[in-house]
Design goal:
The complex is a heterodimer. By secondary structure, chain A is mainly alpha-helical. Chain A is about 75% helix and about 0% strand. Chain A has one domain. Chain A contains 22 helices and two strands. The chains are: A mainly alpha, B mainly alpha.
Chain lengths: ~500, ~90
Amino acid sequence: MTETVHNLLLGFSVALSPPVLLYAFVGCVVGTIVGVLPGVGPLAGISLLLPATFGLDATKAIVMLAGIYYGAMYGGSTTSILMRIPGEAASVMTCIDGYAMARKGRAGAALAIAAVGSYVAGTVSVVALMFLAPPLASFALRFGPPEYFALLILGLLVLAYMSSGSMVKALAMATLGLLLGMIGIDQMTGYFRFAYGVVELGDGIGVVPVAVGLFGLSEILATAGQETPPAVIKPTLRELLPSRQEWKDANWPIWRGTVLGFLIGIIPGSAHIISSFVSYAVERRLARRPEEFGQGAVAGVAGPESANNSATSGAFVPMLALGVPSGPIPAVMLAAMMVHGVSPGPLLIKQQPELFWGFIASMYVGNVVLLILNLPLVGVFVNLLRVPYPLLYPGILVFCILGVYAVNSSVVDVWIMLVMGLVGYLLRKLEFEPAPIVLGVILAPMIEMALRQSLAMSDGQYAIFLTRPIATTLLAVGVLLVLLSFKSLITHGFDWRERMAMAEKGEEL
Amino acid sequence: MGASRGLGAVGWSEWRHAAAILGTCAFAAIALERLGYRLTMAIALGFLIGVIERQGVFVTLTLAVALAAGSYLLFDTLLRVPLPRGPFGL
């Protein structure tokens, strides 16, 4: 305990130094803009701005990227409430009751509750992250390649199980990602695989062009030709304060959302998206008057908004402690850290304490910054939405090309983005979720390395995965998940994913 | 479970825009290291805003030049991310 406090003081001494504070602030502002703008989610946002951090040292760069991540979470709720357009996928549930509140003239109150809920969730979950990550890291020091292999496979299976929609589709996408991740030089023998004579492909397909293509460019492709979005409901500052009753209604959902979000965040998968869905379903079930949901229930805003912010911190637990990304966004963050010469994993906390604790402390600071930034300045950010999309998207496109090119100064990456954009556009149209592709691309080299090291350890005996207790348990859980997904075939009942889809449409559960 | 919708039922009304945007990206990829960043982006922006979105000449020129030069200034000059220059030092 005293050690944690001591470390935290070290962290705050890093986070409160003026330059780091400045970059945290810049990250939060940029993140909020990214969250507000339609078509640029946190994933594309972080990928695009990665080159902008190249000139910085590792701590500042990571603090800024984390600021973008949770800033986007805040910003995404703004567009959901005011326009019924989720700025990013995790705000889908906020759209329902947030927009309903806005139409009843309570837009300001909904924004304030979302901001306060996000603040509480963000802060509490960082405390949890702080206490959970170091012990997990020291536990993970006992992990050998077989354990890592089992953990990574489990991660992909959980992601597939948790993603909304068909598990088969999600697994197909993850496999596509793994295949793309195979391209490049074989790490053990130095052999060029699937490069077809293109030298640049030797380094493999980068996660940035894939992420920007699938999430930035494809969104533009799908949106540009459509008619203009609905009008914005502009809140006045006077009505920003929620009434006493609204605070009371928001209190418990915020706490429940925080706990739920954090727990779901740790589990691999598109955590922040699922957590908001689950929180909405829980609040609706616990509500004394469930019929209010969809008509502007305060709990329907407070719960999911808290949950998705809390999941953001939860997702950092496996990333920082194990070096294993739990979803596409942590995957890009991981890639960003590697660019800056930091390799997250069990040894990070011991070897670079000022980076780890500075990062933790900057998350506390970032949450305060966002609260200050979002409440009074919400009107300013909303004005961004008045820029007509035909003028907006060419600008976003320029940043996509710039961001992707600048990572390696490579035109090949721009071509990869182009192809991925087309692939993402088609997949979106056919209701495939592209997120597992990104995770597959970054996990492929890790899984392959772990598998081949394991087999080297055992002289090629696959039994090594079944003789080590931790690895066996992890794999067994994975098998169980696959079996569980067959359940609805046998019982003919609704799978939980179908129930979520129905809840989203506002149908009775 | 149930079958998926047919390809035709998905709705492809925005395909013209999508094709134009992809074309612009391809142009940018080809031209970026030949014409330089600012010239490439100004042309790409001018095409998208002026030709595809049919905005006025003034709006198109202002936005194209301002965005191309502005993003270059921000990233290349201020953040020191090297971006390619073209034949005329642009």
